[in-house]
Amino acid sequence: MITDMDRYIDIGVNLTGSSFTKDLPEVIEHARMAGVEAMVVTGTDIEHSTQALVLSEQYQGVCFSTAGVHPHHASHYSSAVDSEIRDMLAQPGVVAVGECGLDFNRNFSTRSEQIRAFEAQLEIAIVMGMPVFLHQRDAHDDFIAMIKSCRDDLGKLVAHCFTGSIDEVNDYVTLDMYIGVTGWICDERRGQSLQQAVKHIPLDRIMLETDAPYLLPRDLPVKPHKKNRNEPCYLPHVANSVAGFMQVEQQQLISSAYNNSKTFFNIP
Predict the structure, then answer these.
(1) How far is Cα 150 from Cα 110, in angstroms, rounded to an integer?
(2) Per-position DSSP letters for 93-132, written without gaps between them
(3) What is d(CA 181, CA 162) in angstroms, rounded to the nearest whole number?
(4) What is the pTM of this model?
(5) Which phi and psi angles does 184 have, rounded to 5°?
(6) Which residues, 6 or more positions from 6, have their beta carbon under 8 angstroms from its beta carbon?
(7) C-beta of residue 167 within 8 angstroms of C-beta of residue 160
(8) 4: pLDDT strictly greater than 80
(9) Taking a C-beta distance cutoff of 8 angstroms, is the pair 128, 100 a contact?
(10) pLDDT in tens, 13-63
(11) Given this model, what pLDDT does residue 5 score?
């Protein structure tokens, strides 16, 4: 039974992916039954931002969306793309600019292309007064420098799918940023740095996300509905792990993450 305290907002779900094509209504229903009241569907390029917007209209009040261009797709950024992002952000269900930022790990777009696209989207956020849904991988110093350069003009910022170090947490907190934590923390192989870092995230800056269908928690006690597919219904499991590693009461973590997310994305 879901209590008033067992309420969640999944701030990062990729429901526009092909793995959800056949059973999306059931996926959303499973999430709701698990206490996930709202989900923010991630826009990673114009196509997926448009699809995310459609979901925010189809599942009004449950699904919300972001609009932006992921650094992997930065080479496609243009004045036309910029205009389309602005148009989408004017729609009521679209709650943040992004996913945008820097990814120097895979470099699907060149570093200069990524910087140009990131600068453009930060400018959109400033002009439109919108929160920013951020991505950073292997680019921390450049990422921080770019945000610092315009932090006074920017509004709310969240580092999506954080997997980094204590030093990175401290840099983000200094810049008054929120931090989104996923089931990466449940990975005994790769999650050790994050398991230490979350202890340094203030409760008024923590958010929770699954990044579904990716990052299925490795320690789920029950096999997923569809093999190896993560779903927003597993967010309570992520919350339990985060609370444990933060060394805080589970209900305190759940309540803080819920309220932070609701306020950040201006979810009614």
Answers:
(1) 22
(2) TEEEEEEEEEETTT-SS-HHHHHHHHHHHHHHHHHHT--E
(3) 6
(4) 0.96
(5) -55, -30
(6) 35, 236, 254
(7) no
(8) no
(9) no
(10) 999 999 999 999 999 999 999 999 999 999 999 999 999 999 999 999 999
(11) 60
> Residue 7 carries which side chain, given as an amino acid letter?
R
| Residue whose C-alpha is closest to residue 245's, from 204, 199, 200, 181 | 199
Q: For position 2, what pLDDT does the model report?
A: 47
* Residue 226 confidence class, pLDDT cut points 50, 70, 90: confident
Pairing of strands 63-67, 36-41: parallel
In terms of CATH architecture, what is 8-264? Answer: Alpha-Beta Barrel (3.20)
Question: Distances in Å between the alpha carbon of 184 and those of 47, 192, 198, 244?
Answer: 27, 9, 12, 14
Q: What are phi and psi of 140, to 5 degrees?
A: -55, -50
Residue in the block written with tokens 């990044």: 211
DSSP state of 178: E
Domain boundaries of the chain, sorted by first residue: 8-264
